[in-house]
């Protein structure tokens, strides 16, 4: 059983966790029988919907709906932890549901974006580097260090860039058949994730040397 201090060290700092809407929504969900693991799985559903919209059509409305799907995925990522911790519904298998659906959701969105802009390899590269940022973070926790959520392209920033890219694409599509907005977003995510992997590894190495 983790102590409160250990839970805090392995929990991503999110400012909106203290917002009134998040507190109210998580309390409502906990009271009405929602489980944190179910909410985590719902994030994959939203990612699947968003990925399908990105892949199957270039319609501006579809791009806006895909951007909304990205944000709904993040809302699920916020509320699952709040229902688990603040709502008192933690489970022993909770860490699995906390991590695995995130990796699936990231990959669905990023690979879809890559194929949608005609650069499938870029989507796979983005997904791989995004997964590596999480691997380095979790590895640090596995050797007894606080999990490191730092970096220029942590999850919230990846999804912010993707959301901006999708909204920009919704404006680009009516005037051009190009996909420069999605290409630009995918390049930023891949490059930023690479830098994040490097900086987290350096921080991890220094922390281990000091321990």
From TrEMBL:
InterPro entries in the record: CDP-OH_PTrfase_TM_dom
Record key words, sorted: Membrane, Transferase, Transmembrane, Transmembrane helix
TM annotation in the entry: 38-58, 108-136, 180-202
Keyword Membrane attributed: yes
Coiled-coil region list: none
Gene Ontology terms, MF aspect: transferase activity
The keyword Membrane belongs to this UniProt entry's keyword annotation: yes
UniProt-recorded name of the protein: CDP-alcohol phosphatidyltransferase family protein
């Amino acid at each position: 059983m983790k102590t409160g201090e250990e839970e805090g060290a392995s929990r991503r700092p999110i400012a909106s966790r203290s917002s009134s809407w998040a507190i109210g929504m998580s309390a409502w969900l906990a009271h009405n029988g929602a489980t944190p693991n179910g909410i985590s799985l719902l994030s994959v559903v939203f990612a699947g919907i968003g990925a399908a919209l990105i892949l199957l059509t270039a319609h501006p409305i579809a791009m806006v709906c895909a951007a909304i799907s990205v944000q709904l995925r993040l809302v699920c990522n916020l509320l699952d932890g709040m229902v688990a911790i603040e709502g008192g519904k933690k489970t022993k298998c909770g860490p699995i549901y906390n991590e695995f659906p995130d990796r699936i959701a990231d990959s669905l969105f990023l690979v879809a974006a890559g194929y949608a802009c005609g650069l499938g390899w870029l989507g796979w590269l983005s997904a791989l580097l995004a997964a590596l940022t999480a691997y380095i973070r979790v590895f640090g926790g596995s050797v007894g260090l606080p999990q490191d959520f730092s970096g220029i392209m942590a999850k919230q920033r990846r999804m912010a860039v993707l959301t901006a890219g999708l909204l920009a694409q919704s404006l680009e599509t009516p005037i051009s058949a190009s996909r420069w907005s999605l290409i630009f977003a995918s390049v930023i995510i891949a490059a930023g994730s690479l830098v994040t992997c490097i900086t987290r590894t350096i921080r991890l190495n220094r922390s281990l040397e000091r321990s």
